Amino acid sequence: MRTRPLKVALLGCGVVGSEVARIMTTHADDLAARIGAPVELAGVAVRRPDKVREGIARELITTDATALVKRGDIDVVVEVIGGIEPARSLITTAFEHGASVVSANKALLAQDGADLHAAAEAHGKDLYYEAAVAGAIPLIRPLRESLAGDKVNRVLGIVNGTTNFILDKMDTTGAGYQEALDEATALGYAEADPTADVEGFDAAAKAAILAGIAFHTRVRLDDVYREGMTEVTAADFASAKEMGCTIKLLAICERAEDGQSVTARVHPAMIPLTHPLASVRGAYNAVFVESDASGQLMFYGPGAGGAPTASAVLGDLVAVCRNRLSGTTGPGESAYAALPVSGMGEVVTRYHISLDVADKPGVLAQVATVFADHDVSIDTVRQQGKDGEASLVVVTHRASDAALGGTVEALRKLDTVRGVASIMRVEGE
Ligand SMILES: NC(=O)c1ccc[n+]([C@@H]2O[C@H](COP(=O)([O-])OP(=O)(O)OC[C@H]3O[C@@H](n4cnc5c(N)ncnc54)[C@H](OP(=O)(O)O)[C@@H]3O)[C@@H](O)[C@H]2O)c1
């Protein structure tokens, strides 16, 4: 074993960073044995230098992250600050000064992944980010390496623990959205400002990263269709139950049936209770991958939290250190397929539509005609009448989102349709 240690600069020492530092210290001997050289924490950049950081020598703490990554003797920079700046500048500066980078930063990778990969390649360095998608769950490496010989057609996942916790509460207790969110906040599953989670921004960033790797195509954050889950109601869950389904916020990355384009989207959807993703409870994450040769694979585990996320960061750190010792780099960006990324209109799926209609003869025929006119074939219809008004629940066969959009627009124009109470996609069948 080499005795000269590999030097690691830790940028950020919060929920994830403090766990990275703890594991680096407590597992130092095992990490050294697995890497073939000791790893040394050479500096820790934070915002508040006076905060007590257990187990970290005071002289390692600095507020000057730029000076730390410019030192020139740093082998690996671990970026766990989060956000776009200063993380982006620090990572590119790290490459320029000879370091490889491990990051957990989904927002940055989804927005600027291509540029960061190019910078890493230009300097012959590694950029690893297993922790950026689904915390502890090994996903990036299986997609990049284990499935490198296969053809991935679909990635379907629950990649945000906060929203899964809220939806699971609504499902199991009958609570409304706000009540379930309040409980998630009280238990520490939701942040004070839950927008990034409940509006699907966090899941969309992860979908962009996953789609890019799965389809060897650059998928930008703007390419991902995004719909949050704040509008899901207890009534939607009741409808889902009647269909033998539950509701999950899903990230779905798909290759079109002709293989010539891909789509990436995040939205709430009904999935059958028999689908493995339906049994993913609480704040857990799971990702279902379908590929030509392997068939269906499921990856499941804790998608966030200090120690689980640090596990993924440490795995990357070991891999990058091994590469460093053998004078090589791991796989970089693979975007050779360069498939066009289609918009939501091209997506083909099934729909559950709930309409408030007048309770009189001929309404059902009128509604059915609108569906037929737009080439959307109906699978089932259920009608419930009450005091001159009725609700009509229509479940369709597979149709494009564009065709469904046209159908709904025409339905809204019918005198007998009082309103479209909800539209929910049905996935996983
Ligand atoms: N938390 C999770 O469960 C989780 C899961 C997966 C991925 N991630 C990702 O991991 C990253 C870190 O998340 P986190 O939850 O650990 O965040 P966090 O608890 O807010 O910690 C952020 C750390 O960065 C430091 N920092 C902030 N601005 C800085 C600056 N300008 N210069 C130097 N240090 C600065 C903070 O310093 P102070 O300590 O002085 O405030 C803090 O130590 C994010 O990209 C996040 O998306 C987190």
Set down the secondary structure blueprint:
Elements: E1 6-11, H1 15-26, H2 28-35, E2 39-45, E3 61-62, H3 65-69, E4 76-79, H4 87-96, E5 100-103, H5 106-122, E6 127-128, H6 140-146, E7 152-158, H7 161-173, H8 177-186, H9 195-198, H10 201-215, E8 225-226, H11 234-242, E9 245-255, E10 262-272, E11 284-291, E12 295-302, H12 306-325, E13 348-358, H13 363-373, E14 378-386, E15 389-396, E16 399-400, H14 401-413, E17 417-426
Parallel strand pairs: 1-2, 1-4, 2-3, 4-5, 5-6, 8-10, 10-17
Antiparallel strand pairs: 7-9, 7-11, 9-10, 11-12, 13-15, 13-16, 13-17, 14-15
The protein binds NADP nicotinamide-adenine-dinucleotide phosphate.
NADP nicotinamide-adenine-dinucleotide phosphate (NAP) is lined by residues 11-17, 45-48, 51, 65, 80-82, 86, 104-106, 131, 135, 304-305, 309.
Structure description:
The protein has helices at 15-26, 28-35, 65-69, 87-96, 106-122, 140-146, 161-173, 177-186, 195-198, 201-215, 234-242, 306-325, 363-373, 401-413, and strands at residues 6-11, 39-45, 61-62, 76-79, 100-103, 127-128, 152-158, 225-226, 245-255, 262-272, 284-291, 295-302, 348-358, 378-386, 389-396, 399-400, 417-426. The chain is α/β, with parallel strands linked by helices. Helix 1 packs across helix 12 and helix 13 (363-373) runs antiparallel to helix 14 (401-413). Strands 7, 8, 9, 10, 11, 12, 13, 14, 15, 16 and 17 form an eleven-stranded mixed β-sheet that branches. Helices cover 36% and strands 26% of the residues. It has three domains: 6-136 and 306-326, NAD(P)-binding Rossmann-like Domain (Rossmann fold, 3-Layer(aba) Sandwich); 150-302, Dihydrodipicolinate Reductase, domain 2, CATH 3.30.360; 347-426, Alpha-Beta Plaits. Strand 4, helix 4 (87-96) and strand 5 form a beta-alpha-beta unit. The structure holds NADP nicotinamide-adenine-dinucleotide phosphate (NAP). NADP nicotinamide-adenine-dinucleotide phosphate (NAP) binds next to helix 1.
